[in-house]
Amino acid sequence: MHKSLKIHHFLFLRLIFILFGTGISIFLFQKGLVFSAIFGFLIIFLFLLELYFYLKNAFSVYDRTITSILQNDFTSSFAKYKSYQNYSALFKLYETLKKKENEQVSKDIVYRSILNNIETGIIILQKEETDWNIFLMNDYFSKHFDVPKVSRWKYLKNYLPKLCEIIEGQGFQEIKQSLEIRVNHQDTQTFVMQTSRSQIFNHDYFIVLLDSIQNVIEKKEKEAWINLMKVISHELLNSITPIRSLSQNLQDLVQQETISAEDLDDMKSSVATMLRRSDHLQQFVESYRKLAMLPSPKKEKIELSKWIENSFQIMAPLFKKEEIEVVNTIAFDRRLYLDPQQMEQVLINLLTNCIYTLKETLNKQIIISAEVKEKRTFIMISDTGKGIEKEIESKIFLPFFTTRKEGAGIGLTLSKNIVEAHGGYLAYRNDDGKTTFVICLVDR
Questions:
Q1: 422 DSSP 8-state letter
Q2: Residues 6 or more apart whose Cβ sits within 8 Å of residue 113
Q3: Which of 29, 77, 131, 434 lies at a C-alpha separation of 20 to 30 Å from 177?
Q4: CA pair distance 135, 123, nearest whole angstrom
């Protein structure tokens, strides 16, 4: 009744009516109108009773709304009580929190779905007083390690004691190391474990990531084979398709009863083209053989300066022809243990790459420098060319990948393989607009 009014307005009006009714009933009783007075008091009693239940219901709605908010229970609906204008702000707060809770639940579902589809073992711990509870364990962790989704750290220790022992030994602090774990009673596998710890809203979380080294290697090998097959298929089709087409054309010509001079010229042209494509295919196969059958390095002691000088002497005519200035900033000498012929080939390949990048540059300069750090020798070859485009940086070491029409696409790949066969690595970086290749060699 009159729920559209504010509660305090309702109470004020009812109290006025009750006081007025009480006064009238007393007046009637004094006048001897006993039955009228009794009827008046009965009406007042009914009003008091109705007021009691109204207030009880109003405070009950208030308590239920507050309790629902405190307990994060947003399943109730208070639509039928929205006529209580006193609680309009409270109901608005409830609906706002309900909307945010639904959004958060949706996000949690998406995040858990993402984590469950990652091929990395993930487990998140949450600290409760002095113990740790398992806040989240993704499907990969549970299935790969054959562990049920337990809720306590002490239960996990029964399934993966070695993992838990390492984490506890480090006091649940950040760790990055490899470890061997026996999976499903099979052979042990090597995993890389990374952990991190963070505090969010007074909650302490500890995150453990486990990556199988075997899976990472297999994935990389698969990607490498796919890329290699794409390149080989492309090169083979580029040669075989025209050869087959020309062969078909020759077959049609030789089946004729007479061969005209024009047909003879076509046959000569077709044969010449087939020979060129065959030569290209042979060169391609030879390049592949060089990569696949790289001999083991025949190492010997050689001075760093001699190695650099020998390579420069071979490339000197090309530097002169292209008007390229070579700046050698190496101020020290050092004896290295390497295969002179193979490592000279590495420098020649890198310098040839520099010459190509400097073709359309006015300031043609190649700078070679070196430094020694922690028993490693770093040789840097830089040029002032246009550099390597961002889109192809990740492909420059792929076999047969090249941006040069006359290139075979094995120079950088072969150089990388040679350096790695010496126990080092070959890397690329872009420093202040300069293209730099870095050769790292480990001192014996």
A1: T
A2: none
A3: 131
A4: 8
